[in-house]
Specification:
Length: 119
Amino acid sequence: MDKELLDYTAQKVDELLAAASSSQVTREAAQGWKDAIAAGEDADAATTKLLDAIDAHHTTVDELIAFAQGAAKDIMGEEVAAGMLAHALEIKEQGAKYCDCAACTAAHKLLAKHGRPVL
């Protein structure tokens, strides 16, 4: 892997780790990538493992809507859940197929950069 792609991947991994919306699976995959790179392991193999993990689950806009209508109320409170729902409905109306939170956006950009665009 060339330095430019490695640096881009590292930037997106940091974004995944910093995003409050990252799932535990995403955090573990991102941290696993960082640990592998720091240990001098093969960057291509570590990146494939990371990409496989984040490519295995995409939050669709419909899943986001369902979350906002249900569990988000208990986790984040009624007001935050209502804002999330309004946003999700708005982006769905605009044609979005997937969640656009910080974690999902970073994951989608990372996948696309590595030739795995989310359709």
